[in-house]
Amino acid sequence: YRWKNGRLVMMLSWIDDNLILGYPEDVEQFRKDLEAGFKCKYEGPLTEYVGSKIEMTRRESGTEIKITQPVLVQSLQDEFDLPEGKPPRTPATAGQVLVRNPDEPNLGKKESTKYRSG
After folding, report:
1. Long-range contacts of 52-59 (CB under 8 A, 24+ apart)
2. Distance (Å, rounded) from C-alpha 18 to C-alpha 37?
3. Which residues contact 1 (CB under 8 A, 6 or more apart)?
4. What average pLDDT does this structure show over 15-20?
5. Measured CA angle at 55 (ends 35, 14), to 5 deg
6. Which of 27, 63, 77, 92 is most buried, by CB atoms within 10 Å?
7. In the β-sheet with 52-59, what is the strand arrangement from edge to edge?
């Protein structure tokens, strides 16, 4: 990352895939600086990055970035035989802290690892 004129420019790197974020003119300069020292391939406007789908919406108030992982979601649906359609609503209130009920028995190994590993 670097600061330029009080604005942040960041580069995310995953093996040989790089993503540069910041104001458009700062991103362009950062890209040119990289190309001056390294062999780079510019792929154009961002739509996908290391398995994640990227959607950007530019507004007068700023840029909104939406990152989703539809392939991962589909693999989880397939692995855990989840129903199609709208997902069920979370039964807890947002921000509520969940605590274990001391009067209930602990889950067995099979139940405690059904939706997670370990």
Report:
1. none
2. 15
3. 8, 9, 10, 11
4. 90
5. 45
6. 27
7. 48-49, 52-59, 62-68
- C-alpha–C-alpha distance, residues 61 and 112, integer Å: 45
For residue 115, pLDDT beyond 70: no
**Extended beta strands in 34-95, E state:** 48-49, 52-59, 62-68
pTM attached to this predicted model: 0.57
Query: Each residue of 73-98: pLDDT tens digit?
Result: 888 888 888 777 776 666 667 777 77
CA 57 to chain CA mean position, Å: 16
pLDDT in tens, 41-69: 988 888 999 889 999 888 888 788 899 99
Identity of the amino acid at 57: T
Q: How far is residue 63's CA from residue 34's CA, in Å, rounded to a whole number?
A: 24
